[in-house]
Amino acid sequence: MSKECFTFLLEKVKPDLTKKITRFQKPISPIERLAVCIRFLATGDSFKTISYSFRLGHSTVTEIVHSTCRSIVKRFKKDVIPEPTEEMWRKIAEDFEKLRGFPNCIGALDGKHFVIEAPANSGSIYFNYKHRFSIVLLALVDACYKFIAVDVGAYGRNSDGGIFAQYNLGKRLENGTLHVPIGKNLPDSSTFAPYVIVGDEAFPLKTYLMRPYPGHQATGDANKTNFNHRLSLARRLVENAFGILTQRFRIFQRRMKLAPENVDYIILSTCVLHNFLCEQKDYTGLINHSAQNAQPHLLNPLSVQPGRPANDAFAVRETFKEYLASTAGRNFIGQQYQE
């Protein structure tokens, strides 16, 4: 993070971090509060280590980190993770075509488990398949590793597909209320296809969500194997984004001994800072960015969507499979890799 970015970040959160001066003591300055929080997120140092470094009390450092993370989410989230418009979806699809060679793709979807200390009296709800206690971040990522939408706070025992079905992202995609365009012809062809999200086997097959063919179906079928390969190239972007997030914020490289509600805000604030840092070359544009119509992306629980994929979903996947195996599809990805 450059000095200019830190200064801009400070100006945005300064109203929340400025404390009243009393006759008894001088409050900790906003710049020191922000420095403490960034140090904690970036290094993963314990509160005790940071308290020695800044000569502050242990409980004071704890309060500073939690309050600053909440302020970052409050002041920046609507600017750096806004609700996408139709124009934004089209731009995301263009980036996937130019940079990743997958047409009509508007995002890569996956979940990330962040290890936490077992909360008191929580039973097994946070206990995941890796035999650890965790909180899940479900994220939709664009072709430039930026988060389009995030959901934080799901229990570690839940699967990625279950979390997607239970939360607002899946419901709004199902209802068509996320302003996603209907689709367009695939490059260099007259074949029409909808805009889709790519995910792994943990997610359901939908007309707007593509998952790979099962292994037993793809074995011996070159077209299905090719589709799985092309989808994997696009889908791994979200895994790379999680890797970048973990490298930038080393707090995630160790087990977090914090209450789940505090972990939620720490994860969400790092997602916000991640997008902010991705835009740091033109960060000044955020000052004039209007976020009045933006909707929160901390998604709320909704009903489960059970059942098998509809025939339309199979038909959409077949459309992409046939196109990617065609001459136009092979030439399309070749042009992208040559660039």
UniProtKB/TrEMBL annotation:
Q: Which UniProt keywords apply?
A: Hydrolase, Metal-binding, Nuclease, Nucleus
Q: Is Mitochondrion one of the keywords?
A: no
**Tagged with keyword Protease:** no
Q: Which organism is this protein's natural source?
A: Parnassius mnemosyne
Which subcellular locations apply to this protein? Nucleus
Task: Identify this protein by name.
Answer: DDE Tnp4 domain-containing protein
Q: Supply one GO CC term from the record.
A: nucleus
This entry's Gene Ontology molecular function terms read:
hydrolase activity; metal ion binding; nuclease activity
According to its UniProt record, where is this protein mainly located?
nucleus
Tell me where in this chain the DDE Tnp4 domain is found: 109-275
Cofactor(s) recorded for this entry are: a divalent metal cation
Family, per entry: Belongs to the HARBI1 family.
Q: Domain of life of the organism in this record? A: Eukaryota
